[in-house]
Amino acid sequence: MLSVGWDQVFAWRLGRQFVTAPTAGSVEDVATRLVGVQAQVASAAETAVAVRSSDCPARGVGAALGAGTLMKTWAMRGTLHAMVPEQAAAALSLIGSARTWEKPSWQKTFGATPEQVTGLVEAVSGILADQVLTREELVDAVLAEPGFAHLGEQLRSGWGAVLKPLAWQGALCHGPARGSKVTFTAPGGSVRGWRGIPEPDTAAPTLISAYLGAYGPATPAAFDAWLSRNSLRKTVVRGWFEAMGDALTEVDVEGRIGWIPSEFADDLVAAELDGSVHLLGPFDQYVLGPGTADTALVPAEHRSKVSRAAGWISALVLVDGRIAGTWEQVGNEIVVSMFDARTVAKRTLSAAVNRLAEASGARGLDLRVD
Fold first, then answer.
1. To 10 degrees, what angle do helices 42-50 and 27-34 make?
2. Which of 116, 225, 222, 104 shows the shortest CA–CA distance to 165?
3. Which of 4, 82, 190, 322 is most enclosed, with most CB atoms within 10 A?
4. How far is the C-alpha of 84 from the C-alpha of 32, rounded, in Å?
């Protein structure tokens, strides 16, 4: 078994996620490396890509979604992500394999039986086969079909709970915004290279390799928490890991056992921190990948400052790869709140603010440390 320390893990992750060395590659390259960017808040997705890129245009995520090279859909943990098609299809396959809409608790909450969900998949696939519709237009079209009249309130809900199982089965994804209105369309007509939803056993190696290649070493449980909030059967997830055999290497990180793609084992051992400080935006994959409950990354006593009320994930201050504070923009100021009294040179923080300003296209940002 390979043995490393957390300093090596964080140094390796910073590099793999294009934090210490922004890439000259495309928006799609960044999204691929991160296994998608959370897109519940569009500006957060743009920031996540911009701070990791030396050459991506402003609003690059929006442009890629419009071009169909990225796909926006309800993916990991039921939240909206912008993903490249192959990874999106793999994620949807594994999430859908949990069949959460067949559980009595889901049926009781949302009022749809498994048979009705199957009917919705068929109806919506037909409705969206050759058109893009707003939520209101799609709901009206669905309610005109027999058997769905009682689902009007759930279908109109902004949380999209009844629509998510349709996304996981490939019946719909988000289309280009129409003004301030969300639209939906069929992936086959809007996403370049869309090949449909693969079988879970085929999809699993694709997604596991990508996840561990950015957020490893990690366990099957951590992978499932990131993917489905632990909705999948533990034996199934462990089986996917075991089936990958020598493609994965077992790693002991100061007593915590996880796995990493074997191709990165030497890089992990050689990784070294450089004392760098970085600012990442809200809902950043750097923390969403391992999860805010990972105490090696987020001190337990400060988790509530990162994972806040109503599901908001704060913008992050990283010191040597660990989350050491949060920040927010107030007017032309970046207001930094460190978790403890550790000393970080103001010029170091100012350099991080300047990198953020350059990446986001903002000018004249000042630093204030609370």
1. 100
2. 116
3. 82
4. 6
Instruction: Give me the residue label for tokens 């000259």.
Output: 24
Instruction: Give the SS3 label for residue 95.
Output: helix
Q: In this structure, what token pair is assigned to residue 67? A: 């071009």
* Alpha-carbon gap, residue 271 to 233, rounded angstroms: 34
Per the CB < 8 A criterion, the answer to whether 100 and 83 are in contact is no
H/E segment holding residue 81: strand 80-83
- Bond into 187 cis (ω within 30): no
Rounded Cα distance, 166 and 164, in Å: 5
Point out which residues pair with 335 in neighbouring strands: 328, 368
pLDDT in tens, 178-232: 999 999 999 998 999 999 999 999 999 999 999 999 999 999 999 999 999 999 9
For the chain, the farthest-separated pair of C-alpha atoms sits apart, in whole angstroms, at 66
**Residue closest to 172 by CA, chosen among 96, 230, 225:** 96
Cα–Cα distance for residue pair 256/139, rounded to 1 Å: 48
Whether the model clears a pTM of 0.90, i.e. scores above it, the answer is: yes
Give the CA dihedral 76, 203, 9, 348, nearest 10 degrees: -50
Residue-level pLDDT at 357 = 92
Task: Give the C-alpha distances (Å, rounded to integers) separating 227 from 36, 95, 149.
Answer: 11, 7, 32
What ranges do the domains of the chain cover? 1-273, 277-369
Q: Which of 230, 208, 228 has its CA nearest to residue 218?
A: 208
Strand ranges across the sheet with 80-83: 37-38, 80-83, 71-74
Structure tokens at 347: 């010029």
